[in-house]
Amino acid sequence: MRIKGVQGLLALTTLLVLAACGTQPGANTATSVTLAGVVGGTDTNPTLSGQALDLSSASVTVNGDAAQTSVRPGMFIYAQGVSQGSTVAVQSVDVQIEVKGPIESVDVAASQLTLVGQTVSVDALTRIYEENPDDTYTTLALADLQAGDYVEVSGTRQAGGSVLATRIERKLVTSGDPEYGQVEVKGTATNLDTTAMTFDLGGYTVDYSGASVEGTPAEGAFVEVKGQIDAATMTIAASKVEFKTADHGSDHEGEQAEFYGPVVNLDEAAMTFELAGFTVDYSGATVEGTLVEGAYVEVKGAFDASDATLVHAVKVEVKYEHGGEGSSYGEVKGPVEAIDTAAMQITVAGQTFWADANTIVKQDDPDGPLSFDQIQTGDWVEVKYSDATDADGNYYATKIEVKGGMDGEGHDAYHELEGPATGVDAALMTFQLGGYTVVVSDATVYEVFDAYVSAADFWAQLSEGDRVEVKGNVDESGNFLAAKIERSN
After folding, report:
1. What gap in Å lies between CA 7 and CA 50, rounded to an integer?
2. pLDDT per residue over 369-396, tens digit each?
3. Which of 1, 4, 125, 302 could cross-link to 139 by cystine, CB 3.0-4.6 Å?
């Protein structure tokens, strides 16, 4: 299962300018654009707001700093480039990381985790990955994460100041590594003491006396902090602090706007909401779908002439009315073997899952929502599920993502299971996973923390409840014959 601003919005030439130039709308003309929002699509075909992103010539930064990274689905970005038709040739892109550091706690039932004093919420649209040594990524469920894991979170701020994660990466950093204590965090500075050069942020005291400081320190300012964390004393010794009056860019006068992400602080009376750090006025907009708090929307409009933080929308399209349930317990990948649209049940790798109106159903390329009855037998899908079961013992599907016939990695001959191993019998070399008895052969390959190990070493280490990822197929006896087993905790 292998799988990584400056703020602004889409700047388009107006119809009046088009007419003056004799150019008809829809012509194949190059247009300078700025984009903001959550990246969709796939690693090889990333998209934003329905447009393909050509990143071959793009310079990439992370929170404004130069970095060696790739733009991957789930990241929240701000980008500038040239749009021609349905593709944007991106010139520069800034990836937004809201918080980075060791996890303090994980609450799967509440779909939350905490790190560096920040509460991070997860929904069914959140992409969770593990970084691998070969620069590939393994998909994870929320239950795979645990206290002490070092993660990087991209996402958006919610009304109460928490972060709604759009992408979480578990990094190849352990407690013995020098960078384990290095953290990055954004938020609002409170209890500012300019004499002591300290302020509070997310329950931690930030000491910026030895930091490189940008902007003017001010109570209530939005800040970005990098530094060394000391969890025992709840302090961060900052190496860099940037004070901002607001978390958005400079003057956007004359630009038009386009972005994609979740709605925050919806005010139906004023007909406004917040998205990507801006206030969106939709009083004059065409709204497609039901606009509710937390809905994922595409917005097109123009910046206010006197207020660079205000966008007057001309169109708001609701892609998802909600983000679904984030308490994922495990996942299965493979072709759809059976589907019952009336009962909203889907069978993959011999397992039947039930779904409801809260299940997120989507495709990854082209990125976008699907209805349950659009799923076809034979579609290659990724099903994330919680441990909630129906009367027949079937797990609840929190998200079903259609991968277009296979998983995109050339493993179409295999099914994939992920979750906790139970009923471990090291002597017989079997365990239970997702309703299957997992069995092995002499050809089975084993990994622990991305390192290959022998069968003897693997079974000596495997314990009840360990998180495992299994690739293989159902054999004639109804058991799941593993071609590869990887333990991830």
Report:
1. 19
2. 999 999 999 899 999 999 999 999 999 9
3. 1
